Automatic annotation (TrEMBL):
Entry's Gene Ontology cellular component terms: cytosol
A GO BP annotation: fatty acid biosynthetic process
Domain Malonyl-CoA:ACP transacylase (MAT) residue range list: 4-305
Keyword Transferase: yes
GO molecular function, one term: [acyl-carrier-protein] S-malonyltransferase activity
Name of this protein: Putative Acyl transferase
Domain of life: Bacteria
Length: 308
């Protein structure tokens, strides 16, 4: 089996809270993961997440966003690794993991490349860098080539940031350029939705921020991977000689291509694919890309009926 670690665009809070309440294995995993995450949160001057998430008045996404730079990133990181640990407990260890953009951080942690606490530190380091990544992201209901045509029609300041499947792509750029893309999309009859993320990513104009993030990642010890790690940005599995600080920083400046990497993962003939985030957009992309040839693909946290 393969565990899938998604990007930041689809991360509601409620599915994790529901699963933690309903399933002992998810609660045990959450206790373990968020103990490490919360130690990093306190170290970085942020509110501990575990007691808040499991308390009588748990936060919503907007509450996390208002509580300090990096807390949403720590939530996403913790949620992914909670699902990963619970899935390992109930369904066995995966032979490989796949990371999409931000998801590469928990994916590498799940592979043992970074320790649980250091992975949380890297997630927070990314948040600090993204705080100074001006712009935003817009989801377009069209394929890659149509999305590129819309960015050209809008003046070229926005770029295709992520190809989700043959009918969905994300563009990134300055807010004025995104507005122009959205206007061009409306004229072309293409649905456009601005993602609720206050920064750009996967844009070549963010090279200074990428350098800063790479320098931050180099502070943490790297260990030999216990399983194969596939990257949607690199377009391949990582090798032992990869400079992972640079590869993680690439997520700020290079596009992610989900269809390409999903086909590579499918070639491994996994028995099942499990999305570790709280949403299901990556699972939907897997099914759209692979069609009838897709192995069973699940989004356990998003699926109330999933058999933990």
């Amino acid at each position: 089996m393969v565990h899938l670690f998604p990007g930041q665009g689809d991360f509601p809070v409620a599915p994790l809270l529901r699963a933690v309440t309903a399933h002992k294995s998810v609660r045990a995993a959450a206790d373990e993961v968020f103990a490490a995450v919360d130690a990093v949160a306190v170290e970085r001057g942020l509110r501990p997440l575990g007691p808040w998430l499991l308390g009588p008045e748990p936060p919503r996404g907007r509450d996390l966003a208002r509580a300090g730079t990096g807390l949403p990133h720590l939530f996403m990181y913790g949620a992914c690794l909670t699902a990963h640990r619970a899935l390992e407990l109930e369904h066995g260890e995966p032979s490989a993991v796949l990371g999409v953009s931000f998801g590469e951080i928990p994916a590498l942690t799940a592979a043992g490349v970074y320790g649980l606490a250091d992975g949380a530190r890297i997630a927070h380091d990314l948040a600090v860098v993204q705080f100074v990544c001006p712009g935003g992201l817009t989801l377009l209901a069209c394929g890659e080539q149509a999305a590129r045509a819309l960015t050209r029609a809008a003046g070229g300041g926005a770029v295709v940031a992520c190809v989700n499947n043959d009918a969905e792509a994300v563009v990134s750029g300055p807010l004025s350029q995104l507005a122009a893309v959205e206007e061009a999309a409306a004229a072309a009859g293409v649905r456009a939705v601005r993602l609720p993320l206050p920064y750009a990513a996967h844009h070549p104009g963010l090279s200074a921020q990428a350098d800063r993030f790479a320098a931050a990642v180099r502070r943490y010890p790297r260990h030999e991977a216990r399983r194969v790690v596939h990257s949607a940005v690199a377009g391949r599995a990582y090798r032992a000689d990869d400079d992972l600080a640079l590869r993680l920083a690439d997520c700020l400046i290079r596009p992610a291509h989900i269809p390409q990497i999903v086909r590579q993962v499918a070639a491994r003939r996994p028995a099942a694919l499990y999305e570790t985030g709280t949403g299901s957009s990556l699972t939907r992309s897997v099914r759209a890309v692979l069609g009838r040839e897709a192995p069973p693909a699940h989004a356990p946290l998003a699926d109330e009926a999933f058999p933990w």
